[in-house]
Please model this.
Amino acid sequence: MCASCGMAVTQAFPQANGLLQCVTGAHLRVPTQRAVLYSQTMDKTHILIVDDDPGLLELLEEYLSGNGYSVSCAANGMELEQRLAEKNADLLLLDLMLPGEDGLSLARKLRAGGARLPIIMLSARGEDIDRIVGLEVGADDYLAKPFNPRELLARIRAVLRRTGEDQATTTEAPAAAGSGFGPFHLDIDSRRLTRENREIPLTSGDFNLLRLFVEHPNRVLSRDMLMEWIKGYDRDPFDRSIDVRVTRLRRKIEADPAAPVYIRTVRGEGYMFTPRGSD
Model:
């Protein structure tokens, strides 16, 4: 039930099938013909949505298109591969529970194949284990259903700002060309991490976290600070997803992830990045 107008969500959006929350006081506005014609003249960020609920696909396509994005839809893993073959995506909205190959398996396969496109996972299952596994396989964010479309839009924009893919946002000042630590070199412009000229695959989430550490060496960074920069919103006190991200990054840069020398845990405070790899 919408708190502002009293209209039931299913009445406002019958195609949502209970998987979206009403946008208080506004609902979802379908773009006007003028807005659609205007947006067609602009280069737009391409979002690919993978979900087996046709009603939800239709609703999200209308909403995101109305907010200036180019949107494609797929109902399963096979259609996902077809859409990516037709056109590269700047961001992937991936449902966890899909017929056939599930979202976790698809995300793992994409990362194993070197795909760097940001991934936001969607799921009607909001258990911590699902969120943790999703982040471990390379997802950049995780949103449980039902969700407010405005929150989804905010998360999309936050992820795209971090990856530099959102063509509707202003660009940040140029960063340093690159930074070295130990045998590694992080190229900020190309978003590549190399070790002795051998590239180490990074997801967009891995890169953003590592860049934050590299740009703030020898300084304790709290979990709240990391979460605010990485995800763009306040951290829930019980949200441990930043620890999952750090663990995933350690596996790529530490000789022994259980005894890290670059990303050290400061008990009760957060994490500290030490470029020299010494205590």
